[in-house]
Amino acid sequence: MLGSSRLLHARSRSGIFNGEPHSYTRFNLTQNMEGDNSQVEMKLSSEVDEEVGGNGVGDHLSHNSNGKPYMVQKLKRTPKSLCFMAAVTLLIFIIGFLVGYTAHRRKETSPVCSASVLPFERAVAPETGAAPLMDWDKVKSLLNQRLTAAKIETAFSEFSKPSHRAGSPEDDYLGNKVLQRFKDYGMNTWNDEHFVKVQDPPASGSNRIIYKNDPEERPKGFLSYSGNGSVKGAALYACYGQESDFRLLRDKNINMNGRVMLVRAGKISFAEKVANAAKVNASAVLIYPDPADYSIGETTDLYGHVHLGSGDPYTPGFPSFNHTQFPPVESSGLPKIPAQTITSAMATKILWKLGGQSLPEGWEGFHKLGNENDTISVEVNNFLTEKKINNVFGVVKGLVDADRYVVIGAQRDAWGPGFAASTVGTSVLVELARSVSDMVEHDGFKPRRSIVFASWSAGEYGSVGATEWLEGYLSSLGMKAFSYINLDGIVTGRNGFKVAASPLMHTLIEKALNEVYYEDKSLSSQFAKSDWESNILEPMQMDNTAYPFLAFSGIPSMSFRFTSGRSSYQYLGTLLDTQEKLNAATSSQVPQLAAAAGRFAGSIALRLVHDHLLQMNLRKYDKVIRFNVAKINAKIKAVQRMQPQMLPKALTVQWLISASGSYGRASRSLETDVQNSNLDDIETCRIINDRIMSVERNFLSPYISPREIPFRHILMGTGSHTLQALSNHLDALKADNPEADADLFRHQFALATWTLQGCANSLAGDIWSLDNEI
To answer: A cellular component term (GO) from this record (predicted)?
Structure first.
C-alpha cells in the first residue's frame, strides 16, 4: 500500500594503508543490498615476503646480519651502500606521499559499508569546516539564470504523450527518458521496480447503470479499487457526500440503508465520498460532475480511485516487491460497495425524475432527494491486474552531509494526456535537476546536503509509486530525508497561489514567497496580501502525493500550485487535460508559470541544502499543539458539566497540558543551544539538525500499526489516534451519541498524551536533558 522501490546495488570499495613501511593490507569489499554476502580479501606483507623468498624491501628495512637496527649500525660508505641508502630514502618518500594522498582522498569521500536508501557513498567534509558557503543572493541569481521558461517549454514537447497510464509502454518510455536526462547531467541515477495491483475498467464488456425502465447507460470512466458486483437500490441524492451532508439527511429521518447515492464531484476526494456512504450502509455510489461546478461538457467522463489511503492496497504497510511472499491481505481503506462515475448528462436524466422530499436548506438544485420507488441498478465489473512500475531517481550529492537529503518529486503517469497532472511537473523536475547540476558543475555551488529528484509512476491510482518507496525504506528515510517537495499539478491557473505544508516549513515558504518573482512582482505581493497564512495556506488532502510523506513517514512535506482563483482547473481526472485546455486557463502563460513554480520549489530546496542549519520553525507546531490542547480542555469540561456520567471529574487534562508545555520548552531550549553553538563545527550542526529532523517523525503514534492505520501523525494524520479525533469523540460524548465510548476515549487520550511527550523528549536531545515534569 503506502510505498517503496528496489535500489541499484550499492557498492563500496576502499584501500587502506597502515602507517608502517613494512606491511600493507588490501581490502576488496563488495556489498549487495539484496543480500549477497560481502567478501573481504586481505593480503599482508608477510605473505608477499614469503612469495619472493624473504628478499623483499621489508627484509632490508627490518633485519640485518647483526640483529641491530640500521640506525645504530655503521654502514660503509661504498657506492653500493650509497645507492642502497638513496633507494631507501626514495622509497620512504614515495610511501609517505601515498599515505598523505590516501588520507586526503579519504577525507573527501569516505565509503559507507552499510545499506542506504541512496546508492551513493556518503561524503564526509574536511575536518576544517563546512563546504565553502556561496552567498545566498548569488545562489538565487544562478537559479533564476539557469531555470527559464524557454527551457521548460522545450521540455513540454519532450515529455508529452497522448496517453501514458501507469505500467504502459508509454510510461516506461517517459521513465527511461527522465533517467537518461539525469545521466546526461552527470547525476548518480537508479530506479525502483515494483509489481503493484491496480483495478482497470473491464477488458471486455462494460460497467452499467439502469434507472427504472430507462435504457441502460455504459459510462467509459471508472473508479479503480471499487467493489465489484451488481446491486439494485433506491436512488438518494447526497450533495457532495460529505459527513455533514449525510448528517442532514439523517436529521430529515431519511432511511439511507441500501440506497444508491448520487453525489457531486468536488469538495472531498472520491474515496472519502464512498467511505462516507458506506458508513450509512449505502449499497452503491454514483459520482458525477455537476454543471454548477464543472463546465467540461455533458458527456465528459471522470477517472479516479476510491482507495481511502495511498499505495498498493493489497500490500498495506509493506512494499510491492516481486519477491514479497506475504499472505493475501487487503487495506482497511478498500471499499466493499460498488462505485462508478457517470457523466453530467446521465446524472441529469436521473435527478429530474426523482421524487421524495425537497432538498435541505443550502443545497443547490431544483430536484428532489429521491424516494423508495426511484430504483437504480448498478453493475461494476472492473478487473484486478498486476503491473510493473518503475520509479526513477537522480541525485545531486552534498559535500558535507551527503546522507541527508531533500526529495523533489513528480508523478509521470496520467489517465490520458495529463498535461497539468503530470507533464508540467515532470518537465519542471527535469529542468530543475539540470539547473542545480549546472550550478554545481559550472558555477561553484557546493551544497552541504543532497537533493534527490524522483519521478513516480502510478500516481493516478493513489500515489502508488511514491508510497511503495516510502514503505520499502521507511526506517532509513525517516532518519535521512528531511523534506519532500511535490511538483504535481503545480500549474492549474494564474490568478491565485496555494500551499499545503507541514507547519515546520512555513517560515521557509514565507521567505520563498518574498524572493520568487512572477511578472516582475514577488509571489507574496501578488497573492499573500496582508496575511499570507490565511490567503495562501490550505489543508493537505489525502490524495496529495505529499500526504503519505508527512502523515505516514513523518517527513516535513509541502505541495503548491498556481490556481485560477475561486474556479479551479476542471480537467484533472479527465481525458481532456491537454496543453490547449491549460493554455486557455492560464492565458497561454504555462511556461512562465511553470518557471516561477520551479524557482519557488528550487528556492526552498536550495535553502535547505545551503544553510548550516535546517530552517525549520519548531515554534509553529507549538502553536498548533496549544490550539488543539485548549480545544480538548474546553470540551472535556463541557462534557463533565453536561454529561457527568460519561467522564468523571477525576479525568484531568493536566497531563496533556504538561506534555504540550514540555514540547514548548524543548523547542525553546533547542533555540538556546543553537545560539550557544559553533555552527562552523560539522558535528555540532549535524547533531542539531538531527534533533530538528526527529520532530515530525516523533509525531507518528508508536501505539498503532501502520498496516491498520497508515497515517499515524497525531496532528496531520487520520484515525482515532489524532488530536482531532479526540475532539470529535468529545462532541459525540457531549451529544450522548450511542457510538461514543468513554473508556475508549480515555485510552486514546492517554496514548496521544504520551506520543506528544515522546516528541518533546526526542527534541530535548540527551537523556539528561529530558523534561520530567509530567
So the answer is: external side of plasma membrane
Quote the CA–CA distance of 254 and 281 in Å, as a whole number.
13
State which amino acid sits at residue 284.
Answer: A
Report the distance separating Cα 416 and Cα 460, nearest Å: 11
Q: How far apart are CA 701 and CA 697, in angstroms?
A: 9
Q: What is the pLDDT of residues 627-685, one digit of tens each?
A: 999 999 999 999 998 888 888 777 888 999 999 999 999 999 888 988 899 988 999 99
Instruction: Tell me the C-alpha distance between 705 and 707, whole Å.
Output: 5
Distance CA 468, CA 466 (A): 6
C-alpha cell belonging to residue 357: 422530499
Which of 153, 141, 143, 142 lies closest to 592, judged by CA? 153
CA triple 554-557-561, angle to 5 deg:
155
DSSP class of residue 542?
Answer: T
Count of residues making up the chain: 774
Phi, psi of 401 (to 5 degrees): -120, 75
CB of 613 within 8 A of CB of 655? no
Residues 6+ apart with CB under 8 A from 730: 632, 635, 636, 638, 639, 745
What was the pLDDT predicted at 157?
Answer: 96
Buried b (16+ CB within 10 A) or exposed e, 47-84: eebeeeeeebbbeeebeeeeeeeeeeeeeeeeeeeeee
Torsions phi, psi of 547, nearest 5?
A: -65, -50
Cβ contact 309:2 at 8 Å: yes
**524: DSSP letter:** I
**How many helices, marked H, and strands, marked E, lie in the chain?**
23, 17
CB 109 within 8 A of CB 121: yes
pLDDT class of 225 with cuts at 50, 70, 90: very high
Distance (Å, rounded) from C-alpha 774 to C-alpha 568? 47
Average of pLDDT values for 367-385? 96
* Lookup: cell for 519: 511578472
- Element housing 46 (H / E): helix 45-51
Strands 401-411 and 481-486 come out as parallel
- Share in percent of the chain as helix, strand, coil (round to 5): 40, 15, 45
Q: CB–CB of 492/571 below 8 Å?
A: no
Per-residue pLDDT of 198-208, as tens digits, reads 999 998 889 99
Give, for 456, the enclosing helix (H) or strand (E). strand 449-456
Provide φ and ψ at 224, rounded to 5°: -65, 145
DSSP designation for 768? G
Whole-angstrom Cα distance, residue 43 to residue 51? 12
pTM: 0.83
CA dist., res. 331 & res. 338, Å (int): 16
Q: State how beta strands 557-563 and 260-264 pair.
A: unpaired
Please name the residues in contact with 433: beta carbons below 8 A apart, sequence gap of 6 or more.
181, 182, 185, 187, 394, 396, 453
Q: Residue 436 in contact with residue 386, Cβ under 8 Å?
A: no
Compute the mean pLDDT over every residue in the chain, rounded to the nearest whole number.
Answer: 85
522 forms beta bridges with 517
Using CA atoms, how far residue 707 sits from 187, 320, 549, 568, 710, in Å, is 35, 14, 15, 34, 6
pLDDT at position 204, please? Answer: 85
Say which DSSP state 185 is in: T
Asked if the model's pLDDT at residue 14 lies above 50, the reply is no
Pairing relation of β-strands 303-305 and 222-224? parallel
- What CA–CA distance (Å, rounded) separates 420 from 597? 13
475-489: burial string, b at 16+ Cβ within 10 Å, e else: eebbebbbbbbbbbb
DSSP letter (8 states) at residue 457: S
